[in-house]
């Protein structure tokens, strides 16, 4: 049998005493937590360990003795340490002694109550107690049986040190009957700023909770459920983003304590994401209101809209002629061209009607950047959607007309083959048609077939324009989702204190000599940056349609409408 003793490196220079920790019988391992110095009263030690065990729910006991021969040179010390095994009855009784300035330590076990004592091979593993206590061991991403078993063994060791936090709250300056050596024995690690922030966070969270409950009550009111407001709330990106941030603020201001490390990291990630988002928004707002950039932007917006309208008029004039040498149906071509030109004329009149108020609108819109950069980006996306509304109308008209002709041609093609679509059974069945039905079907099929190229050309041009707008809006929403979902606190923690996010451990051999225990150093392997993002990624409010290329081409061919994004609970057409 191999006995593994996990010894804290901070106790290597401790005075002689007894070792307290947890014995893990399933792994035949001993996790040393602290050293109790001489002199002490055994009854008080047992009472103290009982209180620690009651608070931490960890079976802490006396595992053995520790001898530092550099400070204790009495011959009776070894006999006294062996006699302690009769007072603190633990099997096996571990004896570790440091031999002066030598690199090698002696480690042995005593089994007084065993009939057949067997000599065990001992492995002495040093670990950094502070890092192990503060770190959180993550399960492996792969589900291999061996990896899961190793992770469960390591989690028992990490959990023992993490749950024994109460044991580390006493230092050498405490006037108690028991003196301990652990990673905080020289003084409890604390920060005045952190303690002040904890005290100030309680009233701040109460005030924020009250304000958020008031705002959420207004949002859940029946007024917003009526048609115009409910439609705008579901379609505008700014409303969805504000609702998403409202949920984040409710999570942060909640007075419920985090149940596990995952919930704590989620709260921290949301808090840091909000801070960085608001900071970037304030920087953007300060840049916009400096040197009258809002006025320059408003003066530029109208000429750009006029230029886009002129380009669309030139495009329609080109389509109404002979585009690329193609011969179109002149009557339908003229009707469609004039119809779209009239819409452009209406759009130009609408833009010029709003031109006196554009600077004021942009000035108030710029103030919304103080709520965060994501809010400003969502407003930009909505502004782009409003400024390109005429392109969207052109795309819808062309798509509906093209879709109507495609489905009409497919239905008439089934008529030629003596088939029909059964609506009840959702399948194609055989059907007999008379001569009049076949004649009318032939005429309609011929008309639709010869009108299809003209309609398809308009549909293709406006689909490309619509896709261009969709790509721009998609890039904006991808940036918003990146800011919303990126676990910034976890990434900063991985960069500055990588041991806090542990993926596993590695062992480095320190010394090895015949007759002496093997000495290993346990080091923490941090999570990779990709694993950090995958583990702590925050949910976003919008879900993008992830259609395959075949599905997308099918939708374009059939003339089905394509939307840039799809909100929660909304089905894509």
From TrEMBL:
Keywords: Membrane, Transmembrane, Transmembrane helix. Coiled coil: none annotated. Pfam families: Gpi1. One of its GO terms (biological process) is GPI anchor biosynthetic process. GO terms for cellular component: endoplasmic reticulum; membrane. The chain crosses the membrane at residues 200-219, 270-289, 335-354, 361-388, 394-416, 437-461, 467-492. PANTHER family: PHOSPHATIDYLINOSITOL N-ACETYLGLUCOSAMINYLTRANSFERASE SUBUNIT Q (PTHR21329:SF3), PHOSPHATIDYLINOSITOL N-ACETYLGLUCOSAMINYLTRANSFERASE SUBUNIT Q-RELATED (PTHR21329). This is PIGQ acetylglucosaminyltransferase. It comes from Menura novaehollandiae. The gene is Pigq.
């Amino acid at each position: 049998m191999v006995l593994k003793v996990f010894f804290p490196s901070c106790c290597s220079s401790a005075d002689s005493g007894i070792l307290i920790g947890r014995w893990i019988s399933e792994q035949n391992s001993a996790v040393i937590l602290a050293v109790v110095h001489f002199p002490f009263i055994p009854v008080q030690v047992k009472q103290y360990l009982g209180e620690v065990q009651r608070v931490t729910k960890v079976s802490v006991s006396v595992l053995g003795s520790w001898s530092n021969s550099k400070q204790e040179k009495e011959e009776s010390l070894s006999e006294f340490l062996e006699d302690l095994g009769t007072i603190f009855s633990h099997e096996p009784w571990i004896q570790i002694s440091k031999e002066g300035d030598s690199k090698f330590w002696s480690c042995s076990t005593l089994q007084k109550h065993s009939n057949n004592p067997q000599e065990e091979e001992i492995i002495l593993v040093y670990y950094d107690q502070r890092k192990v206590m503060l770190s959180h061991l993550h399960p492996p991403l792969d589900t291999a049986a061996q990896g899961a078993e190793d992770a469960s063994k390591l989690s028992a060791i990490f959990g023992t040190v993490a749950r024994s936090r109460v044991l580390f709250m006493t230092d050498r300056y405490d006037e108690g009957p028991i003196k301990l050596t652990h990673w905080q024995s020289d003084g409890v690690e604390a920060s005045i700023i952190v303690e002040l922030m904890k005290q100030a966070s309680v009233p701040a969270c109460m005030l924020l909770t009250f304000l958020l409950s008031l705002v959420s009550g207004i949002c859940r009111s029946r007024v917003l459920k009526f048609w115009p407001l409910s439609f705008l709330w579901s379609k505008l990106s700014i409303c969805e983003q504000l609702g998403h941030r409202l949920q984040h603020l409710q999570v942060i201001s909640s007075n419920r304590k985090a149940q596990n490390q995952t919930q704590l990291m989620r709260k921290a990630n949301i808090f840091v994401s909000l801070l960085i988002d608001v900071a970037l928004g304030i920087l953007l707002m300060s840049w916009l209101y400096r040197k009258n950039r809002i006025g320059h932007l408003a003066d530029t917006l109208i000429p750009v809209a006029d230029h886009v309208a002129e380009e669309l008029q030139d495009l329609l004039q080109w389509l109404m002629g002979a585009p690329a040498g193609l011969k179109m149906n002149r009557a339908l071509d003229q009707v469609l061209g004039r119809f779209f030109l009239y819409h452009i004329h209406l759009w130009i009149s609408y833009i010029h009607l709003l031109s006196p108020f554009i600077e004021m609108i942009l000035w108030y819109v710029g103030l919304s950047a103080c709520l965060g950069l994501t809010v400003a980006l969502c407003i930009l996306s909505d502004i782009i959607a409003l400024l390109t509304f005429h392109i969207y109308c052109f795309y819808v008209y062309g798509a509906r007309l093209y879709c109507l002709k495609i489905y009409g041609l497919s239905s008439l093609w089934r008529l030629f083959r003596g088939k029909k679509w059964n609506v009840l059974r959702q399948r194609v069945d055989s059907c007999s048609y008379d001569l009049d039905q076949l004649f009318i079907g032939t005429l309609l099929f011929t008309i639709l077939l010869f009108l299809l190229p003209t309609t398809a050309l308009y549909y293709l041009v406006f689909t490309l324009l619509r896709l261009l707008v969709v790509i721009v809006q998609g890039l904006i929403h991808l940036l918003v989702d990146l800011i919303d979902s990126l676990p910034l606190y976890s990434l900063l923690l991985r960069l500055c204190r990588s041991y806090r996010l542990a993926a596993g451990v590695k062992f480095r051999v320190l010394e090895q000599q015949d007759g002496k225990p093997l000495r290993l150093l346990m080091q923490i392997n941090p999570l990779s940056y990709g694993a950090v993002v995958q583990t702590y990624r925050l949910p976003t409010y919008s879900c993008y349609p992830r259609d395959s290329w075949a599905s997308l081409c099918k939708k374009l061919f059939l003339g089905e409408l394509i939307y840039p994004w799809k909100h929660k609970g909304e089905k894509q057409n």
